[in-house]
Design goal:
The chain contains 6 helices and 2 strands; from the N terminus they run ααββαααα. It is mostly helical. Helix 1 packs parallel to helix 3. The two termini are 48 Å apart. The model has no long low-confidence stretch (mean pLDDT 88).
Length: 147
């Protein structure tokens, strides 16, 4: 099949297919006598795998590492498992940072709700945010807990 047909069946763009070829995720296909790329069903399956793997949050580099292992005839289960564990750890850390940010914003919101606009006389500063600084709060969220 030609690149347009492959793109349609895989629900990606032709530009994506060319990019995947350039970075080695998709092997360079054979060419027809007239110079068109000629793909087979394995290219479609590979593109579907890449799309599914990306949906889990894996990066193209990580996906490529899985495909390289498979291409060498090795089992990729343990490698994939470690990638998934790292992805979960990254998500847990992000959740921790977001929860910290939510707490900070709620404190600011409560302070803003209590603030009297009449007291806001400095034209260069906001009393709500300045009060936060005065309380000695940290700018950085605490580190995510180890698991």
């Amino acid at each position: 099949m030609r690149i347009g047909e492959l793109a349609e069946q895989a629900a990606v763009t032709t530009k994506t297919i060319r990019y995947y070829e350039s970075i080695g995720i998709l092997p360079t296909p054979d060419r027809t006598p007239s110079g068109y790329r000629a793909y087979d069903a394995t290219a479609l399956e590979r593109l579907r795998f890449v799309r599914d793997a990306q949906a889990t949050g894996l990066t193209l580099i990580e996906i490529k590492s899985i495909l390289e292992l498979k291409g060498q005839g090795e089992r990729s289960c343990e490698h994939t498992r470690s990638l998934i564990h790292r992805q979960i750890d990254d998500i847990d850390a992000q959740i921790h940072r977001l929860e910290h940010a939510r707490r900070e914003l709620r404190e600011l919101m409560e302070r803003a709700d209590r603030a009297d606009p009449v007291d806001c006389v400095d034209e260069h500063r906001c009393q709500v945010i300045e009060a936060r600084r005065g309380e000695g709060q940290r700018d950085e969220p605490p580190a995510a807990p180890d698991q």
